[in-house]
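Internal ticket - ligand job 262, L-MYO-inositol-1-phosphate:
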Amino acid sequence: MDDLSQRHALACHVAREAGMLAMEYFCRRDELTVDAKGVQDWVSEADREVESLIRSRLAETFPRDGILGEEEGWQPGESAGYWVIDPIDGTTNFLRGLPDWGVVLAYVEQDQVQVGVTYAPIHELLYSAVRGQGAELNDQPLKRKEEAVAPDSALIYLGFGARNDLPAYKARLDYLYSCNMDQRRLGSAALALARTADGRVDGFFESRINLWDVAAGLLIVEEAGGWHNYIDRPLPRGEKMGVLACDASLETTLMPLFEIRG
Ligand code: LIP
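stdout (structure tokens):
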């Protein structure tokens, strides 16, 4: 088994194990101690314990790899690559007992995601991708349909996490509806990207988001035949990102979302 295939297999196994731990916390979420990292930005022992489990499992097999996690931050390594972890993406949904949250991990080398895994335990869906080897959903090949998407039949996830971006968010809503598109706000970038990959929606945009929210999903979209704005650009590690991922036929219609400032 080559190195990336080994990392892919491990990441899928770890995502499932971490998902089971997250589910234990989900089932007793009323007992959790919830802290605020910012406005409507929550964290509990569930996030911390799930990330700790993922870190320990990765270190057992790849002790020289660096790790970047939402809760514990950056741990440098000596190997050529590093892992990116969002232990529970969609934390607000998780804490409210809503189903749209997931365990997310990715392996990055040469500033590109090489392996990405998003596991949604409530939905029992495990999305994964290896660069150049395609995307999978529950171990079956995953590919977006070839047909172009007409803007007036498109459904887009529009994310909003940066509270200071409200005027721009409202203006982006106006733009989407001026194109006769429909939109939803999911609260989990990872699941929004996974559903862009599987074709249930046609795109995702969020103006300021962290690498751990999107790294896995960008590769899954790309390997499923979708497009995203980092497809030929190096991924940043320490700064907020503006992300657009969509059916390739919608790139031109959706790129103006970056120019809207509100
Ligand atoms: C969430 C992102 C979502 C964003 C939320 C939040 P978390 O990540 O997935 O797209 O709009 O504000 O940042 O914090 O649940 O891991």
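Auto-summary: The CA atoms of residues 42 and 91 lie 7 Å apart. The chain has two domains: 3-142, 151-259.
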